[in-house]
Structures are given as structure tokens and as C-alpha cells.
What does this fold into?
Amino acid sequence: MTDFPAVVATGTGPAQLRTLTDADLPDPGESAVTVAVTHSSLNYKDGLAVTGTAPIARSFPMICGIDLAGTVETSTDPAFAPGDEVVATGWGLGEHLPGGYTRRTRVPGRVLTRLPDGIDPQRAMAIGTAGLTAMLCVLALEDHGLTPDAEGSVLVTGAAGGVGNVAIAVLSRLGYAVTASSGRPETHDQLRALGATDVIDRAELSEPSDKPLQGQRWAAAIDTVGSTTLANALAQTRYRGAVAACGLAGGADLPASVLPFILRNVALLGIDSVQCPTPVRERAWSRLAADLPMDALDSLSTVEPMSRVPDLAEQILAGQVAGRVVIDTG
Ligand code: NDP
It folds into this structure.
């Protein structure tokens, strides 16, 4: 039986690098697909899981990592065949299903999406949950009616993070004017290089305002921060605009008034990537292949070995990681 390395949460303390065999992989009990995992990625939620800061894993031992990409080895699901390049994000990977910090896994076929032409497993993980979420936000705004000729720019908060970086690159490619909000001045040049037309300090949005309606600045917004930042984004969005809310980097509360909704017809669009249905995921991956410039993706991502996952988990929680980190499981 072949050994392979994995990052495993045991329920006490931080997750550890362990050596596993196929006998350690649970039987999914439904259309099992064995995947040679070549790459995973690092997300904020992975930081919480690997450090043990929040109870992400529901049972132990649990292979951590909410994302994975690789090649199908064997499949009892007729939708997949050996050699298919696949990606899985969310769906409880690293929570109640084995996650992506492993060289090999066995998962139910329903969590896998076939990669579109133009995106290989490494780039799929440069995108990962964060990039998929960014595209889900863009799709939600488009479905609401947003077009590049709308008056005002599209605000992206938490711009130097993974979701923010991918959102900027996609919106810019689609022809939108993009205002990036970031608390890290050292990232401003890179945000402009990704396509931001304007960069503002996040303090401009994070202070509470006593005005439930403020000057109309944004055609739309993608918010990864929540709390007062989301409240201010809503209060500054133009008539009939929309805000796609996906994150809580600044807090899970929402100290807002209903006035933007009932006087400006502003829409608040909730975005979840974890339980997102497969057809929506397929649409998002195919749009990422079409609308995310791969040179921009390469510029915002770095590749790290699996042995560095424990250190990187601490760093992402401390806000010290910019862009996307791909984990090479080999
Ligand atoms: P990152 O850690 O890569 O980026 C988060 C960014 O938020 C940071 O880079 C920083 O941006 C900003 N930020 C951090 N702390 C604060 C603060 N206290 N106040 C204001 N801004 C802050 O995370 P991701 O991009 O991967 O994820 C962003 C958010 O979206 C997270 O809350 C995550 O949990 C959530 N998320 C939700 C998903 C869903 O399905 N709904 C899926 C994926 C992520 P800067 O330095 O530019 O200021």
C-alpha cells in the first residue's frame, strides 16, 4: 500500500503533517472517485482549521484543506473517468469530507467539477474557493443588470485578499472601472497592476457614519469585509445598484439602515460558495476560463509546499498573506 503525506487535524492543537495510506481514506459510500491531488490552496477558513482557532473539522482525524484539484485515478461515478482533471471547493471538504491537503483522496463524485479548457489544476487552485467566490459575486451583479457602462465604479473591499484580487482582475478584463479598498498601502501598486482604476484606504469605509444615505459613488460593490464597511458600501451605492456580500473579514454584524433599499432601490445580494449548486459552479468556472486573465492570475499567486501549511495558516489569520497561495501537494 502506498504512503502519502497529508495535513491532518486531530482535535487537539494545530493540525499536523502525517503519513497516510489508502486505508485512512474514508469510504464516501456513494459514487466514489479517487483523485490524485496535485494542488490545494490556502484560504482564511484553512487558517482557522489548521491552527485549531475555530471548530471547522466536524470529526477526527480530518484531512484539512477546503479546496483540491488533480486528476481522476478511478471512478465509480459514470460522470468521471480516469485522466479527467477536476476541482472541488467547499461542499464540506476538510469539515465532514476529507480535504485537499493530501496527495491522494477519495470523495463522492457530486463534489467534483470537471476543469474547463484553459485552467489546469495549479491555476484552478490559484483561483480556489476565493476566486470562485469572486466570480459568483460578478455573476450575481451581472444577473442583477450591472453592465460596464453603468455610472460609477465597482467597489471591491478587502482588495488585497484572495477574493478581492480575483474580483479586480475579472472586473477590469470585463471593462469596469474598479475602486479597490485596502488597508495595506504596500499592495496599492499591485492592485493597480491587476486593473484597479482607483485605490482607497479601507479606513474611508470602516468608520461608522451617522448618515444612512451618503453620496452616491458606486455602480455596485463586492464586499468581503462586512460590518460598517458593508453598511457604508450600501449607503454609497447608486440608485438601482447592488452589493454582493460574501465575507466578514471586518465583522459579521451589519449596522445599516433600510434606507438604501427603500429609497434607492439598492439590492443586497448574498453569496455562498460552499453549497453552491453544481450548474452554477460550472457556469462560474467556465466564465473564469473566459474572463480571468491567466497572466494576472499568475501574478497574484505563489506556490508553496505542503510542509509550509502550518506556518501559512498562522500568517493568513494575521492578515499577512496577499493574493492567493497554491499548495503543491507533491
Ligand atoms: P483574505 O484573508 O485573503 O483577505 C481578506 C482581506 O480582508 C484582507 O486581505 C484585508 O484586505 C481585509 N481585511 C482583513 N481584516 C480586516 C478588517 N479588520 N477590516 C477590514 N478589512 C479587513 O481572505 P479571502 O479573500 O479569501 O476571503 C475574504 C472574506 O470572504 C473572508 O471573510 C472569508 O471568510 C470570506 N469568504 C466567503 C466565502 C463565501 O462562500 N461566502 C468564500 C470565500 C471567502 P486589505 O489588506 O486589502 O485591507
